[in-house]
Amino acid sequence: MKAFFTTLLACGLALAVQALTPQEAVDSFALDSTLRHAAVGVALWDIDSARMVACHNPELAIMTASTMKTVTSTAALELLGPDYRYHTKVVARGEFKKNKFKGQLVIFGAGDPTLGSRYFPENPDIALQVVQALQAQGITQVEGDVVVDQGNYPAKSYHGDWEVDDLMWYYGAGVHGLNYHDNVLSVNYSLNPDGTTLIKETPPVPDLVIENQLQTDSVSNVYTFMDFGRHGLIFKGTTPAGDYDGTFVNPLPCSMLADSVRRALTSAGIKFRQKTLKNTSLAETLLVDHESPALTEIITSLLDRSDNMFTEALLRTLAKEAGLSPTPSNGVTQARQALRNLGVDDDGLLMDDGSGLSRWGKATVHFFVDMLSHMATRNYNGKRLCDLMPAAGKRVGKLLPDTSLTTDIVLKSGSMTGVQTFVGYYPADKPRYAFALLVNEFSCPRSELRDNMDRLLINLFLPVK
Fold first, then answer.
1. Which terminus, N or C, of the chain has the lesser number of Cβ atoms within 10 Å?
2. Angle, CA 268 vertex, CA 263 and CA 271 arms, to 5°
């Protein structure tokens, strides 16, 4: 009898799920009273028949947040190719004489966002590569300096439309001609009961200005500011005595890398004497050609972790490889051209940056499903965009993980204040549908909205056979 009722309950749930047509499921979500003041866009697209199955506000441009990363990733795959790799070269500019090198070790930045990244620990350490290259030539002494050439990358590393409050935190790291260690640093500040304080950054950044205005107090009220005018971090406020850690943007990755190379030389037993050389028109010898992971690996990582710096680096690379100045606006122009070459109608795309951190970046759900549909079967050396996107897992709400959709759906999420978005495919391995859910200015708790998005996806896809 218990088994009978269990079976009956399961059938009842299945019937409840299948009771809604796709359009009814979309309407139930979009017209819910919790979203009565929100901007809502929903689109479900049948890839094989190239038709809209269900939608709500398909032509309304809505803030995308990080779902914009799928646009930049698409353009990069098209214009750069799946096997594209960055090459950061290190040249010895000077004279080799017996066991001594006298001159400059010049690092030519190529815009590689993965150089020294903690997300690719298996990739060679460029500082160690320099040491090994010198050791291979029998060098035990270096007299001169380590310098960085950032190429023609703009001095302004961050996007002009990013909010000031984002520019000091790890997710607001800018893009330089030479990126290193994810362009972030760890800061430990120690406050002692006697009021003395110590602030230390790791790895060291010799030219970084750290201004310490902290005072001990029973109440924690710490404010941190980035001073780009003098490349500094400013700590103000009060906090109880103790040790505290934080991760902040490093505005000087070139300085961090140059210092890392100097320290690596010393640690390896190569005597390093820093000296400014007057003659720079010296012979050059290639020491290191550091190669990044392939583009498909970079995209997989950035989509999974929603890495803004990685994505903005790709956007600027689109411009650079086209022979243009590597600015965000030139990157956007190239991204749009890539979409048009694919046959995607980009009229519903208001692209401002590559990552979606700018609140000016908007798109319609119609645009998203059109782009995803075009990319569903497009093969890049055995990889499709859907293969590079993360599984839904626990990225939506609390309901989806209890269903098969946790692995049957791949998606990119996006969130910022007042914004929650998802775009993706179902089924993950052989996409039949592309979908886009964009919601702005919702007034209900985010957790409630995400659970409602779960219900919509369950209603749309669990009945599908």
1. C
2. 75
Per-residue model confidence as pLDDT tens digits over 239-281: 888 888 889 899 999 999 999 999 999 999 999 999 887 766 7
In contact, 149 and 106? CB cutoff 8 Å: yes
Identify the DSSP state of 124. Answer: P
Mean pLDDT across 306-328: 97
Token representation of residue 227: 């001073």
Instruction: Give residue-wise pLDDT tens across range 32-53.
Output: 999 999 999 999 999 999 999 9
Does position 2 have pLDDT exceeding 70, yes or no? Answer: no
What DSSP string describes 135-164?
HHTT--EEEEEEEEE-TT--S--S-TTS-G
Sequence-ordered list of residues with C-beta below 8 angstroms from that of 266, at least 6 positions apart, any chain: 272
411 and 388 in contact (C-beta within 8 Å)? no
CA distance linking residue 121 with residue 447, whole number of Å:
34
The span from the CA of 192 to the CA of 198, in Å, is: 9
Strand 209-216 relative to strand 87-97, pairing: unpaired
Q: Would you state the structure tokens that stand for residue 400, as one six-digit string?
A: 């989806």
355 near 66, Cβ under 8 Å?
yes
Mean pLDDT over the full length of the chain: 92
Q: Is the pLDDT of residue 76 over 70?
A: yes
Distances (CA, A) of 464 to 147, 368, 426: 59, 22, 10
Q: How confident is the model at residue 107 (pLDDT cuts 50, 70, 90)?
A: very high
CA–CA gap between residue 384 and residue 257 (Å, rounded): 35
Sheet holding 197-202: strands in order across? 197-202, 184-191, 242-249
Which carries the bigger pLDDT value, residue 198 or residue 294?
294
Q: How far apart are CA 280 and CA 282, in angstroms?
A: 6
pTM of the model: 0.92
Burial of 235 (0-12, 13-18, 19+ CB in 10 A): buried
Name residue, tokens 């979009």: 30
**What is the C-alpha separation between 112 and 185, in angstroms, rounded?**
18
Rg of the chain, C-alpha, whole Å: 26
How far is the C-alpha of 188 from the C-alpha of 190, rounded, in Å? Answer: 7
d(CA 170, CA 249): 5
Between CA 26 and CA 41 the distance in angstroms is 10
* Tally of residues, the chain: 465
DSSP states along 76-90: HHHHH-TT---EEEE
Sign for the pseudo-dihedral over CA of 415, 418, 424, 427: positive
Instruction: Report CA-CA distances (Å) from 297 to 71, 114, 123, 292, 437.
Output: 16, 10, 12, 10, 26
